[in-house]
Amino acid sequence: MPAMEELMRVFRDRADHVTPSGAPLVGTFGDGLPEALIRAAGARAVEVKAPPLADAASGPQVAAVTRVAEGFLDDFTARFLHRFAAGAFDSYAMIVFARDDVAGLTAYQYATELRRLGHVPPTGPRLHLWNLLHGQSEAIARFNATEAERLDAALTEATDAALSPDTLTEALSREAARAQALTRLEGHPDLFTLRNAGRWLEAEAHAALLDTVETVEEPQTGLRIGLIGTACDLPLLHDLARHFGRVTADLTPYGDPWPGQHLGQSETLLRDVAEVPLHIRANPPRRYGEALRAGLASCDLVIASPDHNDDSFGWDLPTLARDLAGQGTRFARLPLRPFRPDAAWIDTAHSRIEEALA
């Protein structure tokens, strides 16, 4: 199967693409955990936050979830819980939830409660909360080191293989090769899909597929566009932007920050991740705003797309919009985005962008 076709299939099928073989499977929910830490413990990291594109919330598992879950749950959380209750992750050794991912924290809490109440079998993956703090202080560094020790102990119990400096160095090397392969495809019109397919592939398999994808670049015409907002696991915003120009900065959670922010030297990996300023929970908060402005500095138009579950990112938008206007950058705030937008939402979003450019 041609590499492009295979990557598109992996992106579509997601965790359903993965079958148990060899290394134990460890699911990740949220981007706060460097996948290299899992690989270094002899396991394979698989993202479980974004459901397969064909996923639908139906069947007996929905009843098990709705007995304890409120209707206003984040869609990423709800879809995960439906699949968790249906046994989709029973072959996984462990699932690690990022504390700083709002949907991830809620998913961990509800999955734990579903199991405690007996609504799902007590068997299945171990559930672990990864509580990395974002900042530059020594106190934060000590806290994160303790959390890493706790994760290492949990991984050792779940996979029967302890992390070592040598295996971590090797895992980081494979991640760096993946990042280099992605660099060759900068400007490719399907880069969003090609990059994120790697969330369900081993780093070396992803890099090998990327290396055989034909280099194609979008025309360097139209507006230079920046994307910001809450997590969107579809190339939806890129498709919208294509009508007006080209995306030169995708600062959304499924955008350019992954996998680059999880690279670094083994000795400083935790500190490198914690000190990345482009994170909604960066400490102090002004670092995040400054990083957004720096990342968008060369854009002619910025498109902001928070989803209908947003309770944090939107607070930064008024100040950001004012600052962008002051430097002559157009700003379009789209209507609150549903999990799977329909044609009517897309038409309204398109109109909002046109209004911003009028």
Spell out the key features of this protein.
single chain, 358 residues, alpha/beta, Rossmann fold, 2 domains, four-stranded parallel beta sheet, 15 helices, 8 strands, 11% strand, globular
Number of helices: 15
Radius of gyration, CA atoms, in whole angstroms:
20 Å
Strand order of the largest sheet: 2-1-3-4
CATH topology of the largest domain: Rossmann fold
Query: What's the architecture of the largest domain, going by CATH?
Result: 3-Layer(aba) Sandwich
Taken as a percent bin, the fraction of beta residues is: 5-15%
Return the string of H and E elements.
Answer: HEHEHHEHEHHHHEHEHHHEHEH
Major sheet size, sense and barrel closure:
4 strands, parallel
Question: Could you characterize what this model shows?
Answer:
By secondary structure, this protein is an alpha/beta fold. The protein folds into two domains: 3-166, Rossmann fold, CATH 3.40.50.11890; 219-357, Rossmann fold, CATH 3.40.50. Helices cover 44% and strands 11% of the residues. It has helices at residues 3-13, 35-40, 60-66, 75-85, 102-116, 138-159, 165-184, 191-196, 203-211, 236-241, 257-260, 269-274, 286-295, 317-326, 343-357, and strands at 25-29, 44-47, 94-98, 126-130, 223-229, 245-250, 301-305, 330-333. Strands 2-1-3-4 form a four-stranded parallel β-sheet, sandwiched between helices. Strand 5 (223-229), helix 10 and strand 6 form a beta-alpha-beta unit. Helix 3 packs across helix 4 (75-85) and helix 7 (165-184) packs parallel to helix 9. The chain is globular, with a radius of gyration of 20 Å. The chain starts with a helix and ends with a helix. The relative contact order is 0.12. The mean pLDDT is 91.
